[in-house]
Amino acid sequence: MSRTAALISTHFLWGEPPSAVLGGVTTYCHGLLDLLRDLEYQVTIIFPGFKCSETKYCGHRALSLPVGRHNRYTVLLGLPWKFQKALRRTLTGDEVAILTHIDVAYPYVPPRSIYVQHGITWDGAPADPRLQRSWLRRLLRRFEIASSARRNYRATDRSLRTVCVDTAYISAYRQYCATRRRPLESENEKLRFIPNFGDPAPPERIHSKIGQMVAGRSRILFARRFESYRGVELQIAAARSLAAEFPACEWIFAGSGPLLAQVEDACRTIPNARLLRADPKAMLRLHDEADIAVIPSVYSEGTSFSCIEAMCAGCVPVVTDVGGLANLVLPDFNGCIVRPTEADLSGALRALIKNAEFRRRAAANAYAIASGAFSRDAWSRRWQEVIREMEAHAPAKLR
């Protein structure tokens, strides 16, 4: 009897014919598809659409299910019941169901399910001044935060396993269990820490790159979506304050997003600043050419793909003390951890640019850690253990 799996996501495929959505969840889903193919699973990809339709994606069956009426308020309560009912009718209970986003993991969780928790999203608020003036908006924001946390905790409660990309959610879930006086022994059985992955560059390329690092000259890369919570405004401010002090440095902004116009304006006024729009493969080449990568997240961050890709390419990561970034970077060993403020970010970048010896040492350490702990092979081995645990659970009838 062939083994079957269902990969269910709202942030992977969209449209007819289906095309991949640019982002970290898509990278994660492609990694899972490769792993399940190697394990000889027959995979069905399930994603939301406007109607029921079936096609192929990367050799796998791709099934879109209708979502019906969908807006930001229905998201607070999970995907609409129309999608939930269609999902119940589609699944048989025999498959291993991998839920790659909270939107498909609540309120209904299939049997033999693995919920992938990509990091805490309720640890900050949008930079919207209207929230400070309106008590109703503040109240709605508090409800949104509480609802997001509750949905994640309930998804973990109802799934057989929850794969966490960082330890911040594990700590939060244990606190949630403690406040409800649950035995931690049984709850700990659900949780598995599997950080994200990257593909390390060849060692000879890294050795050559590190040998060319000199004081006062550096290529600093920000390769992320241009959004406030990703810290693009912090990076712009740091580049403005340091560009005149270090005229031999290059400031690269690669990506797109809501704050694209602000980045374009900054690149016109900051010396040696460039804006690039690149696909995922081109992003990897940009990391190869940079020697400092900045991941200045303000909130809502897991074990960032951008940070791991930078480490795999021999870049020194400069990150904030947010979410799962501290699972990747050891202060002053393989990078720098700062508070999400302009002063701290500028200070760390100034020290790195001036001190080439520390930069070379941190880049070598970052590459060694990424090659050993955050490689695709290590990630696949950890996921195989979880899937084997699921195989031990007998198929169940859908509730």
Written overview of the protein:
By secondary structure, this protein is α/β, with parallel strands linked by helices. The protein folds into 2 domains: 3-196 and 377-391, Rossmann fold (3-Layer(aba) Sandwich); 203-373, 3-Layer(aba) Sandwich (Rossmann fold), CATH 3.40.50. The chain is 43% helix and 18% strand. It has 15 helices and 16 strands. The chain has helices at residues 24-38, 72-75, 81-90, 130-133, 135-158, 167-179, 184-188, 203-211, 232-243, 260-269, 280-289, 305-312, 342-354, 356-373, 376-391, and strands spanning 3-8, 13-14, 19-20, 41-49, 53-57, 60-66, 96-99, 113-117, 161-164, 191-193, 219-223, 250-254, 273-276, 292-295, 316-320, 336-338. An 8-stranded mixed beta sheet has the order 5-6-4-1-7-8-9-10, with helices on both faces. Strands 13-12-11-14-15-16 form a 6-stranded parallel beta sheet, with helices on both faces. Strands 2-3 form a two-stranded antiparallel sheet. A hairpin with a 4-residue loop joins β2 (13-14) and β3. α9 (232-243) packs across α13 and α12 crosses α14 (356-373). The radius of gyration is 22 Å and the shape is globular. It starts with a strand and ends in an 8-residue tail after the last helix.
Summary keywords:
Rossmann fold, 2 domains, six-stranded parallel sheet, eight-stranded mixed sheet, alpha/beta, 399 residues
Concise summary:
The chain has 399 residues and is α/β, with parallel strands linked by helices. Helices cover 43% and strands 18% of the residues.
Spell out the blueprint of helices and strands:
Layout: E1 3-8, E2 13-14, E3 19-20, H1 24-38, E4 41-49, E5 53-57, E6 60-66, H2 72-75, H3 81-90, E7 96-99, E8 113-117, H4 130-133, H5 135-158, E9 161-164, H6 167-179, H7 184-188, E10 191-193, H8 203-211, E11 219-223, H9 232-243, E12 250-254, H10 260-269, E13 273-276, H11 280-289, E14 292-295, H12 305-312, E15 316-320, E16 336-338, H13 342-354, H14 356-373, H15 376-391
Parallel strand pairs: 1-4, 1-7, 4-6, 7-8, 8-9, 9-10, 11-12, 11-14, 12-13, 14-15, 15-16
Antiparallel strand pairs: 2-3, 5-6
Helix pairs in contact: 8-14, 9-13, 12-14
